[in-house]
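User: Sequence for Phytanoyl-CoA dioxygenase PhyH below. Tokens please.
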Amino acid sequence: MRNAAQLDAGQREAFRKDGVLLLKDFAPKRAVIAVLRQYNIWRNTVIMQGADDKTRGDIARARQAMDVTEGEEIAPLRKLAHDLGGALLGPDNVHEVEAQLIGWAPSGPAWKPTWHIDWVNKHLRLKTEDQFPGFQLLVGFPLTPALREDRGNLFVSPGWHTEICNTFRQSPTLRDPLEAISKGIASQVPWGTPQQLLVAPGDVILTHSLIPHGVAENKGAGFADKLYFRLAHKTAIHRGGRDALDTPWRNWQGMQDGG
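Assistant: Structure tokens for Phytanoyl-CoA dioxygenase PhyH:
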């Protein structure tokens, strides 16, 4: 395990190129185990209170577990996420947009992996282009192992953040490329060749917000659990989103060399 501020030049360059960086054995495993323990207590308690199979299924996925994401157990991982955000976005520049726990149950026969970009449809619903509804950096902590493919792994399309930025830069409006991306999401036309990330508790996933991503099928016996923090540079929240979409590293103080 290393200090979050010690991302080296090679790691930063890999992140610049791919928009994705997997840091192996980077987070304190004791903290990861503590969050997973609380998550399981929360999930099992609420599942038992489910009124029907659909309710239990929705709860089992446990997309939001606010009593866990706001609890003291999460504090060490939140600090590490913010330290990483500070190393990349710049010290004192980090705004936490969201903390989210997601648990993917073993897949049924109808499972179809789908990719998306988190903020696209939300951006399309805005009335003006000078708002920024999203985030810039996703920091993920696997709570359970996914060391083989199809274990509820996060899959990503490395390098496509640059292509997407170029699309925005060449368009006079944001709506046209946003609508094109939204149609691509709806039709599930792939962006490049998606790669499944093989992870274990203690690893940390960093992705640029413009990276297409999704969740692979879970052929394992148990839940595939992850904790995510979505972070943004404070100025992006107030100034608007155009430059965050057409210039991939505009507000990333830690990525400015050659950015």
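Residues 29-48 form the longest helix (20 residues).
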